[in-house]
Design brief:
Elements (H helix, E strand, L loop, with lengths): L1 H9 L2 H7 L7 H9 L3 E9 L2 E7 L9 H8 L9 E6 L8 E7 L4 E2 L3 H13 L7 E6 L2 E7 L5 E4 L21 E5 L2 E9 L3 E6 L8 H9 L9 E7 L4 E8 L3 E3 L3 H13 L7 E5 L2 E7 L6 E5 L2 E9 L1
Parallel strand pairs: 2-3, 4-6, 11-12, 13-15
Antiparallel strand pairs: 1-2, 1-18, 3-4, 4-5, 6-7, 7-8, 8-17, 9-10, 10-11, 12-13, 13-14, 15-16, 16-17
Length: 313
């Protein structure tokens, strides 16, 4: 017994935490976790300047909470990003991965197009898959990602949804355009879901678009019960447009993939533009294709790895 006690005194504290039982009530384990915080590997990436922190939760294990996204997302005291992307093992055996997204304010969202391209590049670069075409489950459904030979990544975003209840948006009936009152002024906009809610406003001058004035007011408008991403679209010609997006929970970003898809769908639906088309955002250009109602929206663009790091949980 004395030998055993002498041996136990030499066992590292972390190992003692592991063998001590029961885990939830073990004060030693709790003290151990406080003194030995978990280090998680992460990758910083961006798609046209829309930047992400990407965590592999397939080969490393952690329980990520909204507070972590908010803490790490701070550009002054954290890592800084628009969204946190989690790569997880799937719940559905028919898909390759599960894809979760948190905004920098800690809110979990349904979809992110630029993030989807970075997700595809990440799982290939990290050798989590050898496939060039992968299926991924998101909070809003399954999407398909195609890593092309030229390095660009195409995402099948699925068909857009226009039914107000599915966006969600409060309206008496479905329409191509709606009037929403903001500060006593009627604002005309299109409402569409690309797995997440979008409002699209047409503007004459992209540089002077009231993104920071109207963006937050429309984002929090009571007719959008889940809040909304707000796109300001300037149509240049039948094949090219400019776009700025106020993202729900993130503010204006350099690019928004689902926002570009929603803007393209709105422009094609209302006869302003034809598919395929190019959307120029502050961070760069996306190619969008949509054949009309019932068809999927295809988005193509780049994904870039910036650096690798570790963060304490």
């Amino acid at each position: 017994m004395a030998v055993l006690l002498r041996y136990w005194s030499t066992v590292p504290r972390l190992l003692k935490c592991v063998v001590a039982k029961p885990w939830p009530s073990c004060s030693l384990a709790k003290a151990c976790c406080r003194s030995n915080p978990m280090l998680l590997r992460f990758t910083k990436m961006h798609g046209l300047g829309n930047d992400f922190m990407v965590l592999d939760l397939v080969s490393q294990h952690a329980h990520i909470l909204p507070k972590h996204a908010k803490q790490w997302g701070d550009r002054h005291t954290g890592i800084g990003f628009d969204q946190l992307l989690l790569v997880e093992a799937p719940n559905n055996p028919d898909v390759d991965f599960r894809y979760r997204i948190f905004n920098s304010d800690g809110s979990e969202v349904e979809q992110c197009g630029n993030g989807a391209r970075c997700f595809a590049r990440f799982v290939l670069d990290k050798r989590l898959t050898a496939k060039k075409q992968i299926r991924v489950e998101t909070k809003s459904g399954i999407i398909e990602l195609d890593i092309r030979s030229d390095g660009q990544i195409s995402v099948d975003m699925g068909p857009p949804r226009f039914v107000p209840e599915e966006i969600p948006f409060e309206a008496a009936e479905q329409a191509t355009r709606y009037n929403v009152e903001v500060d006593g002024q009627n604002i005309e906009l299109a409402a569409v879901s690309m797995g997440n809610p979008h409002a699209v406003l047409r503007v004459d001058d992209i540089n002077n678009a009231p993104v920071h004035e109207l963006g937050p007011k429309i984002e929090h408008h009571p007719r959008f019960p889940a809040r909304v991403n707000v796109g300001f679209l300037h149509v240049v010609d039948r094949q090219r447009a400019q776009l700025r997006v106020w993202e729900r929970g993130a503010g204006e970003t350099q690019a928004c993939g689902t926002g570009a898809c929603a803007a393209a769908v709105a422009a094609i639906s209302q006869g302003w533009m034809d598919s395929p088309l190019l959307i120029d955002l502050p961070g760069g250009r996306l190619s969008i294709e949509w054949a009309g109602p019932g068809h999927s929206v295809m988005m193509t663009g780049p994904a870039v790895r910036v650096y690798e790091g570790q963060v304490r949980l």
